[in-house]
Amino acid sequence: MNVTVVVHDHVALAEIELCGELIIAASTVAGDRLSADRIDEVLRVERADGGTGRAGSAPAPARAVR
């Protein structure tokens, strides 16, 4: 008896996709590292006030992932 079971871990797949997007973004940067703002942009992070990235030199506000 052949039984095939397919399991999809949607959280793991989403994390793998985000890692891939970070790797692609990092491969295009001219310097040594991605800026914190660029990382936030790639990971689609938004501030609690609805903006994206970091605001000036103020401490990073609470953020939620879209």
Strand order of the largest sheet: 1-2
**Would you list the SSEs in sequence order as H and E?**
HHEE
| Helix/strand/pairing category | mainly alpha
Number of domains: 1
Number of strands: 2
Biggest sheet: strands, sense, closure? 2 strands, antiparallel
- The span between the termini is 44 Å
If you compute it from the alpha carbons, what radius of gyration comes out, rounded to the nearest whole angstrom?
A: 17 Å
Query: Quick one: overall form?
Result: elongated
Average pLDDT over all residues: 79
Q: What is the tally of helical segments?
A: 2
Please estimate the helix content: 25-40%
Unreliable stretches, pLDDT < 50, 5 or more residues? 57-61
Content of β-strand: 5-15%
Topology (elements, then pairings):
Elements: H1 10-27, H2 36-42, E1 45-47, E2 63-65
Q: Can you summarize this structure?
A:
This protein has helices spanning 10-27, 36-42; strands at residues 45-47, 63-65. With 66 residues, it is mainly α.
What are the key terms here?
2 helices; mainly alpha; 66 residues; 38% helix; two-stranded antiparallel sheet
Task: Write up what this structure looks like.
- The protein has a two-stranded antiparallel sheet.
- 0% of the residues are buried.
- The protein has one domain (10-65).
- It is built from two helices and two strands.
- It is mainly alpha-helical.
